[in-house]
Amino acid sequence: MSAKAIRMLLGLVVPVALLAAWWFASASGTSPYFPPLSDILHSFTEVWTTDRMATDLLPTLVALIAGFAVAAFVGIGVGLAFGLSGRLRRDFRPVTEFMRATPVVALVPIGLIVLGPGKPMEIALVAIAATWPILVGTADGVRAADQVALDTARVYGLSARRRLFSIVIPGAMPQVMAGLRIATAAAVGTVIVANMLGSTSGLGYMVVTAQQSFNILETWVALLMIGLVGCALTALVVIVERQVLGWHRQWRALDHSSAS
Amino acid sequence: MVSTFTHPARGEDLPVTTTSQAVAPDRDASPSPTRYAAEESERSAVVLEPRHLRVTYGRGANAVTAIGDISFQVRAGEFVSVVGPSGCGKTTLLKALSGLLTATSGEVLVNGQVAHGVSPGLAMVFQEYTRSLLPWQSVRGNVEFPLRGAGRRRKEIAERTREALEQVGLQDFGDKYPWQLSGGMQQRVAIARALAFRPTVLLMDEPFASLDAQTRADLEDLLMRVHAETGMTIVFVTHDIDEAVYLGDRVIVLSHRPTEVKQVLGVDIARPRDQVRTKADPRFVALRTEVLELILAEKSTQQDQGHLD
Amino acid sequence: MTATQLSSRTTVLGRVAEGRAGRTANGVLRWVEPTLAVVALALVWELASRTGILPREDFPPVTHIASAWFHDIVGPELWAGIAASMTAWAIGMAIVVVVGVPLGMLLGTSKISYQMSYLTLEFIRTLPAIAALPLLLFIYGIGQELTVALVVLAALWPLLIQSMYGMHDVDPIAVSTARVYGVGRTRRFFLVDLPSCMPYIATGLRISGTFGLIFAIAASLLVGGEGLGAAMTNAAMVGDRALLYARVLTTGLLGLAVTFALVLLERRTLRWHSSQRTVNQ
Hints:
Chain A is an all-alpha fold. Chain A has helices spanning about 5-30, 35-45, 50-85, 85-90, 95-100, 105-115, 120-145, 145-155, 160-200, 205-210, 215-245, 245-255. Chain B has helices at about 90-100, 130, 140-145, 155-165, 185-195, 215-230, 240-245, 275-280, 280-305, and strands at about 5, 15, 45-55, 65-70, 75, 80-85, 105-110, 115, 120-125, 200-205, 235, 250-255, 260-265.
């Protein structure tokens, strides 16, 4: 068997083992909070009918994607500006550092008050939460443009515009993608929290109502769905990243000295 | 000053002259690689000339004068080597010549005209070859890069690229990526890129310093061959004295900071040159000794004056 | 004309000059413009609020927020909230470190355990920990235990993974050198492996710490109790907008303080590492 196949199999050993352990432990266990995995899965297929998905899953996804799109647009745009102009970046450093360091959940009460419960609030909060990692990633990526590559291009007479699009931006992609990945996690967390507090439908709402009516099974089912969504979206971003950054992964594979 | 060289293939002595601008290749010439059209009746024109160049960094008490006063002339088709003690601002000089850096005073004339910023028709090869190539582009993409966007037809670009890659021996590596190549090959890609561009002057900043001795020797010979074939003007900065004398028609020796031209030596060793025979040639030994002594003298005065870095 | 003037305007491309021409504005002067920018933004908000461009109710003027903030700072309520959240965070982080670092390093020691673990761990990392809150609520009920559990559940993975990477990335040449010089395995661990891991662990601690803080606050925000999150909901419930903004500001400042402290710690352990060396290009 090839080395790669062996590695893949090894990687699967632990998840499979964990799942098996969960299955058997919960099947024979007595804790009311950990119903048998078989029951959970069975309930999952029952609860998540296409109708239910439309009422509870779809709105959350829509809010997520809409907010993320806004964040990507603003984050990359402003990040580009900040990356190119050191002055701009310095001037707004207090603001960006503050927004970056603020636990995003703190903004939820404000969102609730200003916009009231509902989809617009969720979209706004997701947008705000996701913008900062993207902005910082883009700015860092742009700033990291290689001086030697730029000098070479300048001597060859390439215009500033061409240098921006052919050298600076492609070179920034690794960090932009890293920012997007972090933003995805922030976006998912934020939409769930916003959903828990301020909506009458959606994944967060579902989990909260299930908990409040002490419906353990349904809590688990909703929880599972949230996990799936988080996992699927991150996987999506990773796949896009691999496509866009194929050259980067292989290039970095040759350079073993980093602690990223 | 008209230098001559013996064409390796034809075995005749040809005066190396070019018109003051790079012109389109003479396509009816023999199947040998492209040369610039030669106008044998014309004396070599001065293509690059720094005049009383001075570069100072910082202000007031912290001001550092990297380059004090540098003037020299580079004629069309010449190979000029530049050496100097460490820290004497060789790289600063090249950056000023290319227009990447604006001098504090003095001027740089390219083809007789005062340069403002980067002049067209220049190419530069850096020591850090990996960083000058774009990792997301193939070898071919990298060589084509400066040619695109200037309105040239795709066919012409492809043709020039192919030719350039052939000249450096990388014709089979067009689809590879820079990180798949060794250091020497990456530097050859950078050279091919310059060749495809067909600059008036090729500036090289210690291009072989990061390579092992064997690769360095190979690339030195490659560069000489390319120079002979194309008649390109080359300004070659290096800290390696042997390399400077081996490659150059003239060697410019710089002083320590504030840098000036200490001496210019003509290298009257016949071409084509060869790693084994030329380096054993008594004239070569004498020249390199002279350059070495000049530089050592500079280093000791630098130490005496307490300027040592 | 000085060497600082280049033919290009954009600062990225002008970095050559910046690096060579000596420091630009230095020391205190560097903070003038950023401070002015913040003041300008505050002024814009103040004017917009007072003139009604931004609805006064929802966006109280900066001066009101500032006064609410000052009153809050001297009162016991806010500090009780901060104390509760930070205690839960600290306990949670302590558990994360005690469990995560040794476990991570263990998993990173052998190639096999690394291969078996890293996919699973990276996968678990993508699951939104906040979803577990209702479940934890069943188990622990409202209180500090809940917050600690949530912090541990959320913040364990980055540190665990980084510790694992750290052990995995120990330079084999350093290990070979130690072996050639006859350094025993235990000594080698303390002299080579552990210092090699420190930068990774410090980075992981920074990521986990800042991440955990979010959850420490989210817990009381969503569920109630004593923490800072609850303090914010209280302000919201009584309708005191200015106080709410003030408390959000406090939360942000707390986040800044924690981030700053962890970054400082990270930088100290990374001082010798190549990623921290001044780039001399």
